Amino acid sequence: MTDTRVPDDVAAGVRALLPAISERARATEVNRSVPPETIDGLRSAGTFRLYQPKRYGGYELAWGSQIELARVVGAVCGSTAWLIAVLSTHAGMVGRMDPQAQDDVWESDADALVATGSARIEGVAVPVEGGYLLGGVWRFASGVDHSQWTMVAAPVEGQEAEGVGGMRQFLIPEAEYEIVDDWHVAGLRGTGSKQIVIDPPLFAPVHRTIGFLEMLGSNPPGAKVNDGYVYQMELAPYFGTILLGPVLGIAEGALGQYLDTTRTKVGVVRRNRIAESEAVQLRVAESAAEIHAAGVVVDKMIDLLDDRGATGTALTSRERVESMRDRGYATRTCVNAVHRLVRQMGATGLADDNPVQRHFRDISAAQGQIGLNWDRNGGTYGKWLLGVETGDAAIDGKPSPSRDAEAGNVG
Description:
Blueprint (H helix, E strand, L loop, with lengths): L7 H24 L4 H10 L19 H10 L3 H17 L4 H8 L7 E4 L1 E10 L2 E11 L7 E7 L11 E7 L4 E3 L13 E12 L3 E3 H5 L19 H4 L4 H19 L15 H34 L5 H28 L10 H12 L7 H13 L6 H4 L15
Parallel strand pairs: 1-4
Antiparallel strand pairs: 2-3, 3-7, 4-5, 5-8, 6-7
């Protein structure tokens, strides 16, 4: 990015934690959860206050600050970086809700964290006096073990609307849902992205709910009390970029670990110095170039989003679809770079405790996230280039919900 978007004290606090986060990275993966002491350290550094309203001691920062910090941490632990990206962004989402909901979360605990159950398996909200009765099951609630609240989305009974247009988001305190540990996965194991169950149905007061499109549109309820542009702007086209920080950081970390290992490595059979191999030199150069290029693309994209948010200017159709293309392409490029490095390591690159292999597992998992996935985002751009309707109203110029809103809950 052109200039840092993170306060010096926060950046310094996070960098001071990097040795400990690195030392805990393997245990984070094995235990399938970021250690409490890491979360406590990140809290103390102010990491989760990036988008918390100033009224509760937050920073109300410009868009991209969570990407910047997660990129730094991702170089040593992808799972920890993932939680930085999502949990800090969720604070901004709460800041867009009814002021009373914000008070519920932070008035008595300014350090409270909010997870989201990003994938609904089942569940519906039934309108009742003063709110809704809500029950159901949701998956992929990253960081839920450390959170005091969770947001989930469900359709409202009796309201006929297609896709996200018929969904509402509900803010639920931790005492009212059950966490089911179903997070047994190949990569990003430490995010602890577990299942949320609400059974029997509970009462959700109306001030703790918001229409899904209202949350992602411009000037939601929280804009009346919070001044930062992250509470004012249309949020939908920004959402898919949230997890680019972990992706870049993971790739940069994989390259750094590979170089540290390979500079002094000697072949087992011929006892030759591996770093002197031209094939190795060319492959490491290609991966380094890809990671650098991905970073340039992301920096340019975030600069654009920040400018549009700060000036209150809506993105054009071209800017929207190019942003989708670029976030998918940057992710795919980083994946290719890391995969090449692991292939070059031979059998040693297969070991679970090899940090490069851990980065490989994490970035392979990250590429499946809807906001980052190349097939989904690249395909939309290809349609736009060819003059075929994309299905995204904001790109096609039709008055219906934006398809990009599907990436709204990031997990």
